[in-house]
From TrEMBL:
GO terms under biological process: transmembrane transport
Organism: Luteococcus japonicus
Classification of source organism: Bacteria, Bacillati, Actinomycetota, Actinomycetes, Propionibacteriales
GO cellular component: plasma membrane
Protein name as annotated: Carbohydrate ABC transporter membrane protein 1 (CUT1 family)
Keywords assigned: Cell membrane, Membrane, Transmembrane, Transmembrane helix, Transport
UniProt membrane topology term: Multi-pass membrane protein
Main localization of the protein described in the UniProt heading: membrane
ABC transmembrane type-1 domain segment(s): 86-293
Family: Belongs to the binding-protein-dependent transport system permease family.
Domain of life: Bacteria
Length: 303
C-alpha cells in the first residue's frame, strides 16, 4: 500500500487514531469545554440557584435561607425600578433595531458603491467601534454638557441632557447608536462583498430598479448576516450597562436591568439572592433569542 493511501484509510475509521492523536483531540475539545463551563455555565447555574436563597454574600453559604420564588414576586410587584428598567431596555432595543441598524445598513450600501472618499467614511464610522462605551460616554459629555456642550451652544439652550430624566435616556441612546451604526455597517459591508454580482446583473437585465434589486435579491441573500445582526442588537440592548453607569449609575431615568443587577449584588444593599433573580430574568429573556438563532442556524445547516 502506498504512503498516500495509508492516511486516507486511517481517516475513514474513527478507532484507528493513534494515542497521540487521541490525546490531541481530547485536549482540543476538553480545554475549551472546561473554560466555557467554568466561566459561563457554572456562574449562570449559580445565579439561578442563588435566586432562590436569602444570602448577603458575607456569611457562609450554608447559612443561606431558602425563600422559594419570593425575590421574583418582589421584583415584579414592589421593586420600584423593575418595570422602568424593563421599559427602558425595550426602548433601547427598539431604538437600536429600528433606527441605528437601518442607518448602519444604509451606510454599508453607500460605502459599497465605492464612491470617492469611501475609505475616509468607512474609517470614520468604524472608529467608535474600537472605543469602550465608558469612553464614548465621556466623549459625548462634551456634546451634552449643560454649560459648555456643543448641542446647547448650537441650540441656544441650557438643557442638562445627562442629568434631566426627560432627556438622559435619549441622550444615552444617541451616544450608543454612534457606536452601533459603525458595528452594523461593518457586518453588512462584509455581507455585501460576498453577494454574487451576477445576481444583481440578472435582476438589472429583467428590468428591476436598484431599490427592488436590493430588497428582493441582495437583502434576502444576506440572510445569515441579518440573523447575526438581529441577535447582536438584542443582546447588546439587554446587556447595556457601562454607558448609563458612567452617566449616573443607572438612576433618575436611566434604570436598566443590568444596572439593577449590579446595584443589588455589589452595591450597599448586598442582596445577592434578589440580584440573582433579576439576572435570571435577564438570562431567560436573552435565551429566547438565542434559541431562535440556534433553530435558524440548525435549519440552514440541515438544508
Amino acid at each position: 500500500m502506498s504512503a498516500v493511501a495509508e492516511p486516507r484509510q486511517r481517516g475513514r475509521g474513527g478507532g484507528r487514531l493513534s494515542t497521540r492523536d487521541k490525546v490531541t483531540v481530547s485536549l482540543m475539545m476538553g480545554i475549551p469545554t472546561l473554560v466555557a463551563a467554568s466561566l459561563v455555565w457554572l456562574p449562570a447555574i449559580a445565579s439561578v440557584v442563588l435566586s432562590f436563597f436569602d444570602w448577603d454574600g458575607f456569611g457562609p453559604l450554608s447559612e443561606a435561607e431558602p425563600v422559594g420564588l419570593r425575590w421574583y414576586e418582589e421584583a415584579v410587584t414592589i421593586y420600584p425600578a423593575f418595570w422602568p428598567a424593563v421599559q427602558h431596555n425595550l426602548i433601547w432595543l427598539a431604538a437600536m433595531f429600528f433606527v441605528a441598524t437601518p442607518i448602519g445598513l444604509l451606510c454599508a450600501v453607500l460605502i459599497d458603491r465605492e464612491a470617492s472618499g469611501t475609505k475616509l467614511y468607512q474609517t470614520s464610522l468604524y472608529l467608535p467601534v474600537v472605543l469602550s462605551m465608558a469612553l464614548i460616554g465621556f466623549v459625548w459629555q462634551l456634546m451634552f454638557s449643560r454649560d459648555q456642550g456643543l448641542i446647547n451652544a448650537v441650540l441656544g439652550t441650557s438643557i442638562d441632557w445627562y442629568g434631566d430624566s426627560r432627556y438622559n435616556l435619549w441622550a444615552a441612546l444617541i451616544a450608543t447608536s454612534w457606536r452601533h451604526v459603525g458595528y452594523v455597517m461593518l457586518l453588512y459591508l462584509a455581507g455585501l462583498k460576498g453577494v454574487d454580482p451576477a445576481l444583481k446583473e440578472a435582476a438589472g437585465i429583467d428590468g428591476a430598479s436598484e431599490i427592488k434589486t436590493f430588497f428582493h435579491v441582495t437583502f434576502p441573500v444576506m440572510f445569515p448576516i441579518n440573523v447575526v445582526v438581529l441577535v447582536i442588537t438584542f443582546i447588546d440592548s439587554l446587556r447595556a450597562f457601562d454607558l448609563v453607569w458612567v452617566i449616573n449609575r443607572g438612576r433618575n431615568g436611566l434604570e436598566l436591568l443590568a444596572t439593577e443587577v449590579t446595584r443589588n449584588i455589589v452595591g450597599e444593599a448586598q442582596r445577592i439572592g434578589f440580584g440573582s433573580a433579576l439576572a435570571t430574568i435577564m438570562l431567560g429573556m436573552s435565551s429566547v433569542f438565542i434559541l431562535i438563532y440556534l433553530r435558524i442556524v440548525m435549519r440552514e445547516e440541515a438544508r
